[in-house]
Amino acid sequence: MKIKAEIKKLFPDGGKVKAAASLTLDGVFVVRNVRLVKGSKGLFVSMPSHKNAAGEFKDICFPINSTTRAQIQSEVLAAYEQALQEQENSPDNEGGEQETA
User: N or C terminus of the chain: which is more exposed, having fewer CB within 10 Å?
Assistant: First the structure.
């Protein structure tokens, strides 16, 4: 499966959420509101979720095997690194919350 990650927004100042992304799967299916989160063991991908009646958050969509999860993680992290580099090289880099392309 071909997975393309695109960072939609960076959250560089504080907070656990570092970026919001979209995934395109095989050029035919898009998953929005994927988040890159800083946890106790480093950065990880959090899939879109909703709060159920019990107050628990449940993923709406998710990979069902470790190979696909690793591929998604790798693509989102690579897109995040690229977005950070582009932000650093931007002439109007003022810091704070920033939307990307």
Answer: C
Q: Cβ contacts of residue 45 below 8 Å, gap of 6+?
A: 34, 35, 36, 37, 69, 72, 73, 76
Through-space distance between the first and last CA atoms of the chain, rounded to whole angstroms: 24
The two structure tokens encoding residue 61: 């969509």
Global pTM reads 0.84
CB 48 within 8 Å of CB 62: no
The predicted pLDDT at position 55 comes to 96
Domains, the chain, ranges and CATH?
3-47+56-90 (3.30.1120.40)
